Amino acid sequence: MKKLISTLLLLVIITISATAKKVKFAVDMTGQLVNTTGIHCSGDFQTIAGFPGGDWASNTTTLTQEGSTEIYSIVVDIPAFAKYEYKFLNGDQFYEAEFVPIESRVGYNFNDNRWIYVDSLANDTTFVGAILFAGNAPAGNFLVRFLVDTQTLPSFDPAGMHVAGNFQNWDPTTTYLYSFATNVHEIISYVPTGTYEFKFYNGNTIGTAESVPAICAVNTNRELTVDKDTVLTAFCFASCTACLVGIEENEILAGVELFPNPAEDFTMITFSDNNLSYTISVFDITGRKVSTYFTENKNSVRIETEILNKGIYFVNAVASNNKSYSGKLIIN
């Protein structure tokens, strides 16, 4: 019996070791008065990483100051191909945990923890950077939360959803998107101010890239300008807007016109059929809905553009007969 237990224990250790991955948790305490009891990290990784007291213990996972900097960190060994949740604590009591900004939270079912997905067995250490305590990103960077909705895909690649762009050297194998909710896949990245192009991939090879529609494409890619923390709308895969539940791809609303386009103060959207009701939504280039209009038994709606910044927008109209229209709007 003792031999059997020892064998089983050895198998468990071998299994864990085979999927082990070094992950560095780090926090930047700049601007904070550091508690004399130290900086800690608490999360659902602590048991499997070998810390006493179980998961979410507030005083067992102590971070070490990096030289004379304001950065505190720890490297742990935990299984790869898993999502972990955590928080930093300025002290060793859970009431001393940071207040995690909304953009960085898990966000589902009122969950206010940070999260990370560990998806590599490479010998290097997974490290997203030293995040500012109670902040969204490492100093000098902004958070970008990429999301994609896959509900219109006829099949899902077993390699999973990925995103690639010039923010990570266009590598479709490295940035895996995790799914908390049905069909929606996401990842948090940190980038400096700039303009970036990217695509979503149903898999992890170049050939699995989405085909971005021309009306929202820049060099056949999606484009994003980052100058603040940004959570993207859950784009529908290979679409310019969010998925329209229950609307078939071939049900196109005909006889729609946007004029003037380009526009300055306003544009009019005109429909050939005034016996229907319409819901009109305007999205910016990041997929964020900026305005909504409703009309019933009218064939035109005035869209106010003077309140919007100059740039490219997308107008989506859904009629009461479930047909839809999408078009590009340029505001000068």
Q: How does this model look, in words?
A:
There is one protein chain. With 332 residues, the protein is mainly beta. It folds into three domains: 20-132, Immunoglobulins (Immunoglobulin-like, Sandwich); 142-236, Immunoglobulins (Immunoglobulin-like, Sandwich); 256-331, Immunoglobulin-like (Sandwich). It is built from two helices and 22 strands. It has helices at residues 2-18, 46-49, and strands at 20-28, 39-43, 64-65, 71-79, 82-90, 114-118, 131-132, 142-149, 161-165, 178-181, 184-191, 194-202, 222-226, 230-231, 235-236, 256-259, 266-271, 277-284, 289-296, 300-304, 311-319, 324-331. Strands 8, 10, 11, 14 and 15 form a five-stranded mixed beta sheet that branches. The protein is elongated. The model is unreliable at 1-18 and 246-250 (pLDDT under 50).
